[in-house]
What does this fold into?
Amino acid sequence: MRPSSIILTILLGSLLACTSNRELPQPVFTPTFEKGESFFNKNNDSAFYYFNLVATGAKDSLAIATAYTYMGIIQAYEGDHYGGQESLLKSLTYLDEHKKDDRNCLSSNYHELGNICLNLKNYDAAIDYYHKALKYLKQPNDQNIALNSIALTYEKKGNYDQAIDLYKSLLNKSKDKKKEYARVLSNYARTKWLKDSSYPAAAELQQALQIRKDSNDIRGLNASYTHLSDYYSLSSPDSALYYARKRYEVTREMNSPDDEVETLSKLITLSPTNLLKPYFIRYQYLTDSIQTAKNAAKNQFALIRYETAKSKADNLQLQKDNAQKKTQLVVQWFILALTILFFIISGIVLILRYHRRRQQIEFASRQAIQEHQLKTSQKVHDVVANGLYRIMTDLEYKASVDKEELIDKIDVLYERSRDISYENPTISKVPFYVQIDDLLTSFGSERIKVLIFGNGPTLWNRIDVQIQQEVEHILQELMINMKKHSQADAVMIKFECQKNQVQILYTDNGIGISPQVKYGNGLQNTGNRIKRIGGQYTFEHPPKGLKIHISFPIAHSS
It folds into this structure.
């Protein structure tokens, strides 16, 4: 979602305020600040760069606070919610609620902090920030928008009665403002329906939709189609599918990937099985692209701040050196000559050491980014690519597909892809041996028989959770490799424990792998994972098929 109109309005107000009603005005509209504004919502990387220059170099506290506010909005929009939260809280440290000029910027910060907490599902904190924003808002339109945000948060939290009461009061205040009235009416009807599923919300939702059509309110149409699709999901699936398709058209027109992914998930839920494949393909492409873009944005913002801080430190050091040189001009010529000679030699040494140190820092920074990108790429491969391959296998080989089961798998895959940048593994409530059975048998079909021996709870109870996850990825990669390349029709996986070592034997009757063949990324990743858990593996090449022996030590959970 783009920054809301209230944020932009408040920001403009704070900028205008800082150029008037001050005894000694410090202009915010510097060339650097204006460059940042010119790039805002067009090239956010460049906008962030110039606002960061203002934040780290300006003298006026309101100029610094406003720059940090812009930076926080940019970071939150690009998916870096915690970075945006940090910038907005930094902005608050430069503001004083007793200064009239600062209050517009204060309300802007608190409202955006509320939006971030709402996105992070921290509803109590979101409500608290919205109330703080409301404290500094004087215009009725701005107050209504903040109250609508509070009502929406109550709705998300499940406090429907409080949300309904707020929406009722807003309906009376917004009758003369079509777009505002349509938004409140649609939210009100949806909340009434969420509270009581028998509530006939259709008429009010259709009224809001018509107002938005007449007003050509594209973002409003997106919300209306969402509400109508949800409303008809159980009572009239055909109508729900119709409005989901209408929303899909709007999200493409808005060029909003996040909304499009949400709509595709709805279409996959509602559409017939034979129409799912195009939506799956588009869903996979968008989720991969969005995650990659968000990770890149986080890295880029960190690099911009790092380069700016380093440049500022270099300038301060240069100024210090120049000041020292000027003080030496008053010293006698002999001492001056010696001092100059000393500084020349020292300068050469410092420059050499500086360049060497700078190269080391840059090399370490690039290496860290490459390692992060490699790790993220591997996670995308393990979680998204392999997960989608398993779903596509079900669609391709199973005569009939249970839509609810398919939806559950997609929902799990979606949640895992959203959390892909976190390091801590998600602990499943399903026993690990059941997960392994489900994983391995999912690759079976009428043509391929999968036999499993020795997989039971006693085998895995002593194995660390992180090692369990590595083993799951190893087995998944072997089975995908078998499915794609081996041409096997029978696969056996045997598990056993010997001398504090877990032994896994994989056997298939396919075409095998020649010892001279160079392994691809999948098998190379598999080998790396086995080594990472302290294990060993060997490949056997019988006349027909393939055997792989895997072993690793038992590590007790801490």
